[in-house]
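4.2 Preliminary Data

To establish feasibility before requesting continued support, the project team ran the inverse folding procedure on a target of 318 residues. The structure was first converted into the token representation described in Section 3, and no sequence information of any kind was made available to the design step. The complete token record follows.
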């Protein structure tokens, strides 16, 4: 019956989400179930029974008058959407999560960049190498995701089975996301410990005195990487689950409705969130190069991570 249910959902996916359409869908499901039970009782193999049902009930144009949805079926083309297959959805989740990790690595390299300046004059060379590497990683991340820009510019949808699967894996990902986020925050909080430790040990030698501040940047860099990466897959799942338009039957799937983020439907808000981390990176670099207060400017990253969560909540209407 699961095959029949999935087929039925794909038949109605792009129809308007109206009471008449939902009634017709439930009626057709009941008819399919009754026919399936009848065929099984006659001794038909399950696969053959499914094939007969799809052949008999699989054409909405022929059933429209019986179901009373001629008008809705005639206007379905107005909400026609590009179907994202399960394989495409899985590929997008992989690419989006890898892109998020790359952005995190780029930001981490920015935070690491002042460390060489503490130890040697050649450190200025390593400083610019780390900055350029960070910029390169973020640009590469953007290039990799360019193939998926159509998700923001084209009406798309996912089928019932894909939506159900994405909803399940999103729920299963909650614990690992929370764990990574917690560890990232802990790294940021613990970043001052090396400085306090060396100070408590009354270490006076220059090389060791510089280790404390250097370790601060290391802790913050790793913490910010974990914070950014913690929502990598979750953001991809939410993006895909937000594709089904609320005006269509596909937008009424429980798995879609329970995880929809309304700001993904708003172009302005979506635009802000899509360039958020790149904007923060630019502010960090400009502020740091103008003021040379590298020992202070790193604070922008934990603050930006907190602000990111607040903005998501605001746009989400929570």
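Position-by-position output of the design step:
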């Amino acid at each position: 019956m699961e095959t029949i249910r999935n087929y039925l959902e794909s038949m109605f996916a792009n129809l308007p989400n109206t009471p008449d359409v939902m009634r017709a869908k439930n009626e057709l499901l009941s008819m399919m179930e009754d026919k399936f039970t009848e065929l099984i009782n006659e001794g038909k193999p399950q696969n053959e029974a499914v094939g007969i049902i799809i052949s008999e009930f699989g054409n909405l144009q022929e059933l429209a008058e019986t179901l009373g949805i001629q008008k809705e079926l005639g206007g379905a083309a107005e909400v026609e959407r590009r179907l994202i297959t399960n394989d495409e959805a899985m590929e997008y989740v992989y690419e989006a999560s890898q892109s998020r990790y790359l952005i995190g690595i780029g930001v981490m390299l920015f935070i690491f960049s002042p460390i060489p300046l503490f130890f040697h004059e050649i450190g200025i060379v390593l400083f610019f190498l780390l900055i350029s590497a960070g910029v390169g990683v973020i640009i590469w991340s953007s290039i990799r995701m360019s193939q998926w820009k159509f998700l923001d510019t084209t009406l798309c949808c996912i089928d019932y089975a894909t939506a159900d699967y994405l909803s399940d894996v999103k729920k299963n990902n909650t614990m690992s996301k929370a764990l990574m986020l917690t560890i990232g925050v802990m790294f940021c909080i613990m970043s001052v410990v090396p400085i306090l430790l060396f100070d408590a040990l009354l270490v006076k030698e220059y090389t060791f005195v510089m280790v404390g501040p250097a370790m601060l940047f290391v802790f913050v860099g790793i913490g910010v990487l974990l914070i950014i990466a913690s929502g990598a897959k979750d953001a991809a799942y939410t993006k895909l689950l937000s594709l089904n338009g609320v005006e269509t039957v596909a937008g009424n799937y429980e798995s879609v409705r329970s995880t929809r983020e309304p700001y993904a439907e708003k172009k302005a808000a979506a635009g802000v969130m899509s360039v958020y981390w790149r904007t923060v990176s630019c502010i960090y670099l400009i502020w740091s190069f103008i003021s040379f207060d590298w020992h202070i400017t790193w604070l922008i990253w934990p603050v930006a991570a907190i602000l990111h969560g607040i903005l998501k909540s605001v746009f989400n209407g929570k």
